[in-house]
Write the structure tokens for this entry.
Amino acid sequence: MTLPPLPDRPLDICIFGAGAIGGALGAQLSHVAGTGDIGRVTLIARGAHLAAMQETGLRFRTPDGEVATIPVTATDDPASLPPQDVVITALKGHQIPALADTLAALMAPHARILPVVNGVPWWYPVPDGQGGVRGAEEVDPGGRLWQKIGPDRAIGAIAYFGASSPEPGLISYDIKGYLDIGRLPGGDRDDVVRIAALLESAGWMIRQTQPFQNALWAKMMGNCSMNAVSAITRTPNGINLKARPIYDFTGAIMEEVRAIATAEGAEIGMPTEKRLELALRSPAFKSSTLQDLEKGRPMEIEPIFAATVTVAKARGVSCPMLELATEILRHVERSRAL
């Protein structure tokens, strides 16, 4: 598919899901809206968070503790917006499939979409066993996102920073970091370069990893192992990894994901022992999956863990430890409803 080029004018941007990550991105983009290559910026949110932003603006706390109030345009009605040039989704992986029609209607014919997700993204090609590719069923049931939006319009985006939303209308940028964006081999790079520059102009540090699957599978190595084990043990990895059997279990999952990455033509540069060592240095840090469990929110089991198992099976890679962790988490999730 040949994509129409992005228009030669400032780009209108919509952040769909203005929680912690989306809110942080939206705050800095809104702060410079109407300058340079950034046109109108709109945040999609709901409930008390939306009401607070509409009433007083979005309060944004930097890693230094300074708080600024940024005027934002925010709504809970995507249909009220004109077609957008760039759509950034900052939603849990399991929340996106139901929005296939909404997102497709929001995007101009030339638009690009940047899904910032923790797991296997819906646009990631998985062999279908018949010579073709499709999205993993766990993140794109029935292939609706693949059909309605199309994987060619998606630019991969991974957030390597910490943010939270302590109260409605407040986004706290807790841990300074960067965004990694890019495409798989063979994809258009001009739009990646332009959107990277646009984000940099809003104050974000951007890394463009080539090929993008290197960044994706490096992220997945940590998520599939440490997110799963921290939720199973209900303790941060900096604590549970001190027990040797848990350390070995976590490391085994990392090595399985490394094998999956290799089958995908990706390279994970960090050694497993180094990744585990880094986790041990942060005894208070809680993975997003553990936070969801503690707060009574659905865990991202299918997008992070089950979809990775699907990729492994499609490539003929064995991952028994990851499969075990996935099934335990499914039982933990079911037990919460009993």
DSSP finds twelve helices and twelve strands in the chain. The two ends are 47 Å apart (CA to CA). The mean pLDDT is 96. The first strand starts at residue 11 and ends at 16.
